[in-house]
Amino acid sequence: MQTMNAEFLLGSADKSQFPEINMPEIAFSGRSNVGKSSLLNSIVLRRNLAHISSAPGKTQQINFYNVENRWIFADMPGFGYATTGKENKEKWRKLNFEYFESRKNLKLIAALVDSRHDPMDTDMALIEWYEENQKDYLIILTKCDKIKPGAISARQKQLEHLLANCNHCKEVLPYSSLNGLGRNQLIGILKKIIL
Ligand code: GTP
Ligand code: MG
Question: Taking the domain 6-193, which CATH number applies?
Answer without folding.
Answer: 3.40.50.300
